[in-house]
Amino acid sequence: MTNEQYIQQTKDVFAAVFPDAGTPRVFFAPGRVNLIGEHIDYNGGHVFPCALTLGTYAAAAARSDRKLRFYSENFKEDGVVECSLDDLKNDPAHGWANYAKAVVWSYAQHGYTLPAGFDVVCTGNLPAKSGLSSSASVEVVTGTLMAALFGLPVEQKENALLCQYAENRFIGVNCGIMDQFSSAKGKKDHALFLNTATLDCQTVPLDLSGRRLIIVNTNVKHELASSAYNDRRGACEEALADIRKVRPIGALCELSPQDFDAVKGAIRREAALKRARHAVTEEARTVQAVDCLQRGDLAAFGRLMNGSHESLKNDFEVSCAELDVLAETAQTLQGVLGARMTGGGFGGCTVNIVEEDAVPAFIETLGRIYTEKTGLTASFYTAAAGDGAHECI
Description:
The chain is of the alpha+beta class. The chain is about 40% helix and about 20% strand. It has a domain at about 5-205 and about 385-390: 2-Layer Sandwich (Ribosomal Protein S5, domain 2). The strands form 3 sheets. A 6-stranded mixed sheet has the order 5-4-6-3-1-13, with helices on both faces.
């Protein structure tokens, strides 16, 4: 469907689900794909994502009481989730709506208390649990609609931070800032070179010069993902604490690979050493990759993507058999410059740079080999960089 069709569909679903509600306004927040710079946004590193044209649409209207009502066309089985502004808690029975509730809670924690509740219907074209930040998309669109409906003086940078706080403190996932920042602040046809330590951000034209950005979904998501994410962050913090005993640093990604080699002996546990080594080398790859893109050296950019996947597989250990089949097979195919897993890991998606004339063969061959090796069917998306969260006019 087109953007206009999604907007109309969202309005239509709202009218059907909440016939007693007021006339809604419609908002959009995108998902994101990270080109390189994985699992370093909580280690003080640079990341290089772009917002997608895929994302979450939300139709919302303010209420006159303190009730909140949530409905998602993508989770029809959950029905309408209801709660009150006075009783915001993470309830497993509320499924996806916990991410929206988390943002209401986070805003209140930071002094942005709502005078009334609201009704909201979400639709969208972003596959859930794919590593494309569907949860951040829901969070950011919720913050965007709240600010608009109730006149809150919250710009998108602050919205991103409040949504990160929501996921960290209410949901319990210790994510970095990349997903929410990308969804809130994306720019059409550009990627974001974001310093996660300072939130300084440079928009870089995403000129692939006859290549295409192809996202491939494994269509699996292993259950250990959330707990393993927190474990990896904990191991990075452990390594940082060990290094600080011999060298005062603020974050792992302040170290060059050469600096890391000089101090890695201070890290007591092998697993923590491997996690830290990924963070340090991934930071170096990311800075180099942005320079390669700006110089038009996409072949070098692709090689750095391949190196990123190897590090995520062997040092950070967040890949899985399905991701490895997709990434490692793609790296051998004609016309593929680079391929890597993207997102939290343990399933989800790979991101690939493919010569435009090789795309049909890439999809056919990789899809066939993936099915032969895993028994599963992959989904393919041609990605485009889109704008960040906004009201749909």
